[in-house]
Write a structure and sequence with these properties.
The chain has helices at residues 33-57, 185-196, 301-304; strands spanning 73-80, 83-90, 93-98, 110-116, 123-128, 139-146, 149-156, 164-167, 174-179, 200-202, 209-212, 218-219, 224-232, 235-242, 251-254, 259-264, 267-270, 286-288, 293-299, 310-323, 326-338. It is mainly β. The protein folds into two domains: 73-202, Protein Transport Mog1p, Chain A; 209-338, Immunoglobulin-like (Sandwich).
Length: 339
């Protein structure tokens, strides 16, 4: 089934202001020592007040106790097939990480949810999204820099806080999304940006595997999508989702046959086979129930061995079977990456 993401966004504005305290001294008349002392005392009092005002306006905390403990912070890390993603959270914030195939993910392939401690709902999802795109009316975007990296802040319909922050090169694919943060944004919105300024993404540190959606993973004529989960170098779980019960003209059938291709220099090639001699697949046909999702385990190590890191696609044939000799055959692909 096609997966559409509708992002309801709110806006954020950044306003920076500053102030400067000055002392203007006017000529004074009078020759007595008392008047001079009163003037000196008055100027001293004014200087003291200015110094106190500047100290209170500055961002430098008053260090009255040399033994005061520094603010604690924790680095949160989530590794994935496209790189190492991390942020630093100060005390008072909670989090949960999610890897590929996790039910915690909303849009991201893998990443981190973070939110103020004690809130009943709402969080920020910082994640890797292979192809992030936005559209629709009412969208406004602002170019900025976050964590030293160019980024776009996106807002829909002049809402009260931003909806997404999309990082650009060298953090392409890293996206921050807001979810149900209305109740606490006024208090913690600025802190969210401070936390995002600690974002780090290292594409050279890769771990794990992931399914990659492409148009070839879906056949609209029969209302079928094909994906993988629990991917390892030796196998995966195939997921068939028949999302339009009225699309097929007969029964949807598939068998045990499959093929794996590997991408080399931008070209798809048949993955090396480790079997010596002839091999074959059973002729058993499996039925895909209309309107339902079917999962089936697939082990390929017997045919391809343990796959090395790289980009792959799994090929399956599906029949729209009406009667003997009366059917349509379709080919569907599931793309995945291994590290």
């Amino acid at each position: 089934m096609k997966k559409y993401a509708v992002i309801a966004a709110l806006s954020i504005g950044l306003l920076m202001s500053g102030c400067e305290n000055t002392i203007e001294s006017e000529p004074q008349n009078g020759n007595t020592q008392l008047e001079s002392e009163m003037l000196e005392n008055s100027q001293l009092e004014n200087l003291t007040k200015v110094a106190e005002t500047n100290a209170s306006d500055s961002n430098i905390p008053e260090q009255t106790n040399a033994s005061a403990e520094p603010v604690k912070s924790t680095e949160i890390v989530q590794n994935g097939p496209y790189g190492r993603l991390s942020i630093t959270l100060p005390d008072g914030w909670d989090y949960e990480t999610f890897s590929t195939d996790s039910d915690l993910s909303i849009l991201g392939m893998y990443g981190i949810h973070f939110y103020p401690e004690g809130v009943s709902e709402g969080y920020i999802e910082l994640s890797y999204i292979e192809r992030f795109g936005v559209c629709g009316t009412g969208l406004s975007e602002e170019e900025t820099t976050i964590a030293g990296v160019p980024a776009n802040i996106g807002t829909y319909d002049n809402n009260a806080y931003w909806d997404f922050i999309s990082f650009r090169e060298p953090y392409n694919g890293v996206v921050a999304l807001t979810y149900s943060a209305d109740d606490w944004w006024d208090t913690y919105g600025n802190s969210v940006l401070n936390i995002l300024n600690t974002t780090s993404f290292d594409p050279d540190v890769r771990e794990g595997s992931a399914y990659i959606y492409k148009p070839e993973s879906e056949i609209e004529q029969i209302g079928l999508s094909f994906s993988l989960k629990n991917i390892s170098p030796t196998g995966a779980t195939m997921v068939f989702q028949q999302y339009d019960a009225d699309a097929p003209t007969g029964d949807l059938l598939y068998s045990d046959d499959f093929a794996i291709e590997v991408q080399k220099d931008g070209v798809w090639e048949t993955a090396p086979i480790v079997v010596v001699g002839d091999y074959g697949f059973t002729a058993i046909a499996f039925t895909l129930t209309a309107g339902e999702t079917c999962e089936r385990e697939l082990r390929w190590a017997w045919l391809y061995g343990e796959l090395e890191p790289g980009n792959y696609r799994l090929t399956k044939s599906v029949l729209d079977f009406r009667d003997s000799g009366d059917f349509d055959e379709y080919t569907v692909y599931a793309y995945f990456v291994l590290n």
